[in-house]
Design a protein that fits this description.
By secondary structure, the protein is an alpha+beta fold. The chain has 2 domains: about 1-40, no CATH class; about 40-200, no CATH class. The protein is built from 6 helices and 10 strands, in the order ββββααββαββαααββ. The strands form 4 sheets. Strands 5-9-10 form a 3-stranded antiparallel sheet. A 3-stranded antiparallel sheet has the order 6-7-8. Strands 1-4 form a two-stranded antiparallel sheet. Strand 2 and strand 3 (about 25-30) form a beta hairpin. The chain starts with 8 loop residues before the first strand and ends in a 7-residue tail after the last strand.
Length: about 210
């Protein structure tokens, strides 16, 4: 592979359908990856918005129904109102079962360092735009959010990182940005979805 690729960067690679039955799951030959152009953020993420537009669905309930019928299991959702950011303590170490699973997962076919388990569960409690929505509490697996925690924990310590975190991902984040959640499910629990990424172009000036 010719170096690490960036978020929103096109690549060319060889791939094949994986054993995972979800339609979006493919096995990629990582050594075949070629880096192509990046998708820029000009005109308030216009190019990026065009890419995700076909993958926006009105509600979590519609996505769950599609997954149950063998259809899509990933999509973008627009939260209604301002979601509540949840920061909940959890065990700092992997349990033996998950530690064993992680040790067996190849990362680009190369050796990897032990994955750090963050001692907090980050989640959003929100309502989607579906008529049947009763509210959702979804864990956030977004890489940027977890890296922000690591960075601010080092910079501000255990007593200071939380204020920076809430300032970045709390109510101000939604006031300043047009936020969409990228959702994905778990193969073993196809009706259970989590937030795998955040899409957040700036809002136009008032």
């Amino acid at each position: 592979m010719a170096g690490a690729f960036k978020k929103y960067q096109w690549i060319r690679a060889r791939f094949k359908k994986s054993a995972d039955v979800r339609p979006e799951s493919y096995d990629v030959d990582h050594d075949s990856i070629q880096l192509l152009e990046e998708v820029d953020t000009r005109r308030r993420w216009a190019s990026r918005k065009a890419l995700i537009a076909p993958h926006i669905v009105p509600s979590v309930e519609e996505l769950q129904q599609a997954a149950a019928q063998g259809g899509r299991t990933m999509a973008y959702i627009r939260p209604r109102d301002v979601p509540e950011l949840l920061i909940e303590p959890r065990e700092a170490d992997w349990d033996s079962r998950r530690a064993g699973m992680l040790n067996q997962i190849p990362l680009f076919g190369r050796d990897k360092a032990r994955l750090e388990r963050i001692p907090f569960r980050f989640a959003y409690r929100y309502r989607c735009e579906g008529d049947q929505c009763n509210g959702h509490d979804m864990q956030v697996l977004d890489w940027e959010m977890h890296e922000a925690y690591r960075k601010w924990r080092q910079e501000y310590g255990e007593s200071g990182w939380r204020a920076q975190f809430v300032e970045k991902f709390g109510p101000t984040f939604f006031a300043d940005h047009e936020v969409l959640f990228n959702l994905g499910n778990m193969a073993a629990h196809p009706q259970s979805f989590c937030i795998t990424g955040l899409f957040y172009p700036l809002r136009p000036p008032a």
